[in-house]
C-alpha cells in the first residue's frame, strides 16, 4: 500500500519503492512534516522534533499557556500560514473581510483514494488507477471558514509524489488569496546545496549550485511565462552529492506562468522550500462557496545522485506528463525553414528545400514565421491568421499537398498569443490586448499580448487555428510565444479582480491548448517561446516537445542541453542542425558536432539544404540513419551524463533499461597540445555482460583514418570493466572532435 495511515497517532506515511514521505497530525491539529528521504517504513518520525522555548517565537493560543516550547515558527510543517506566528516563507496568505491577514489551519480529516487525482483545467501527472494512490487532507481556519484540501499523489514504482492544494471559502464573506503555494516542505537536519537553472534568451537553463545559506533565497518569474531566466525546476542535494551518489530531491512545477521557488535556512538551521504561483502578480478573490485550485508540483528523492534523480524525472515526464499519441510514437525528423530563409521566402523556395530535404531522409517540413497576413518582418501581421496566398503563390492546402508530394509531412509555425499593432485583428479588437487603459504599453519585438484570460479571445483563437489546421494537410504545429507579459490588465475583470489576470491567462492558454490538442490528436505540437522561454513540465502536458533554445550553435547547445537534461527528458528537447558560421555566435562547429548535439534531442535541421555540398548531404544521410537506428535508445532509454561540457569534453550515454545496448556520444569542447587522455566511467550496463565496443568518428572524411589510431576499432569488454575501469576516449585530432561509441551485448561472463 502506498499510503499508510495510523489514525490513532495521526501519522500518514506515503511509501514509494525507495522513499518515504511522512506527516503527522499533532495534538493541536497542526499538520507537521516529519520526514522525506530513503524508505523507512511507518515509524512515527516526530520523535526527532526537538522542542524548546525559542525566545521571540510565539505560541498558538491553545498551546501558549502550558507549552512555550511549541511554536509554529520552528516546527516543520506541511502548509505554513502567514500572520499567525510562522515568520518563514509561507504557503498561504489570506486577506480576510475585515482587512486582517491571518490564517490558521488545523486538520479536520483525511482520506485515501485509489488512483491519481486530476486537476481540471490544469496540467497534472496522470496514472492508471493501479499505479497510484491519492491522499486528501482537509484543514480549516476556525475563524473565517477558509478551508484547504492538500492533495497528494503517490506513484510508488517511480518514487514520485505530487502535491497541490485546493482552497475553498466556506465562510460568509469574500476573502482574497494573496499567496497560495502548491508545496511547502521543511527539513530539520539536512544541510543542502541548492541547484537552480538560470539563463537568458539564447542561453537557457545553466545550472548554478550553491550551499543554502541563512535568509530567504529565491528564483521565479513574473514575465507571464515560466521564462528563459529561471526554470520552475530545482534540486536540493547534500553537498557531497555527485552524478552517481548522494541524497537529492528534485521539484518540478507543472506550470507555465509566474512562479516563485523560495528556500530559507532558518534560525535553527532548518531548511524550508516553498513553491507555487508568484504572489507578486496574484490576488484571487474567493466569494463564499468558491474554490481556488493551485497547480501541481511533482517531486522525487533518491540517494543515488543527480543522474538517478534525472532518470526518474525523465521517466515520469515521458510516461506520466506528456500525453497523446505523440508521447510514444516515433517523431519525424524535421526541417524548419527559419534560419534558411527567415521571412524571405516563396512557396516555390519552400518546396525546393522540402524536396532536397526529403532526398536526405528528412520526414517533415515546417514552414516557420511569415506565411500569414502582412508579415515580411516582425513589425506587423501577428494575429492575422490567414495564409498570404500571394507570397506562397498558392493556397495553404496546395502548398501542403506539394510538400506531401515531395514525400514530406507538412507543419506550420503559429504565435497565437501575440498581436501586432499593425494587424487587422488589433484594429478590429483593440480591447483584446493586454494593456492598461490610459497608459502606453511596453512593447517587445514590436508586439502586444492577446488577452488569453478572456473567453472570447480563447474562442476566436480556437476557431482560427482549427480552421487553418482543417484547411490543409498539416501534421505539426510549432506554438510560439515571443515576448514577456507586462502591463498586466484585462478589460474583462473589475478592479477588485485584476489580480487574477496572470493566472487566468495561463488557464486560458491551457484551455486553448487542451481543446486544440484533443480536436487534432494526430497533430504533433511543439512548444516554443523565443526558444526555451517556456520550457516547463506544464507545457509538456500539451506539447510533448519544446524548441530548447533559439541558439543553434552546437557547442553552446551542449551547455544548454546539459542543463536542461537535469529536469527534462531527451525526447522533449527540440534540437536542430543549422548552418555555419552559426547565426547566433558566428562560430563554425563541424557538421559531425552539429549532428551529434542535435541527436541528443528530437533531431532536426534548420538550414538551406539546397546550398549544401554533396559531401555534406552524404554526411547528413548518415546522421539520419544513425538517429533512426538508435531512436528507441535515444528517446526512451536511460540517459547518463558522463562528463559536463565544461570539463573539456561533453560525454553522455544512452543505455537500454535492461543494459542490452548503449550508445555513448562525446564532443570535445577543448583541445590541448600534448593532450591528457579523457577517461569516463560508463553506467547502466550489466556487470557480467560482455560488450562489443565500437568507436566511430562520424565525420566521413576524417573518420576513415580511425584505424590508424592507437585505440582498437573494436574490442570486447565486460560491463564491470567499462563501469569500474572505464573507457579512455581516443585522443581528439581536431576542434570539436566527436566520438560515437556503440556498446552491443554479445554474451555474459562465464558463458
Ligand atoms: C522565435 C522562435 C524561432 C522562430 C522565430 C520566428 O524566435 O524561437 O525559432 O520561430 O520566433 O519569428
Structure description:
By secondary structure, the protein is an alpha+beta fold. Among the domains are: 3-320, Distorted Sandwich (Beta-galactosidase, Chain A, domain 5); 640-745, Sandwich (Immunoglobulin-like), CATH 2.60.40. Helices cover 20% and strands 30% of the residues. It has 16 helices and 39 strands. The strands form 7 sheets. Strands 6, 7, 8, 9, 11, 12, 14, 15, 19 and 20 form a 10-stranded antiparallel β-sheet that branches. The two termini are 40 Å apart. The model has no long low-confidence stretch (mean pLDDT 96). Alpha-D-galactopyranose binds next to loops.
Which features characterize this protein?
nine-stranded parallel beta sheet, Immunoglobulin-like, 30% strand, globular, alpha+beta, binds alpha-D-galactopyranose, 20% helix
Summary of the model, kept short:
With 751 residues, the protein is α+β, with helices and mostly antiparallel strands.
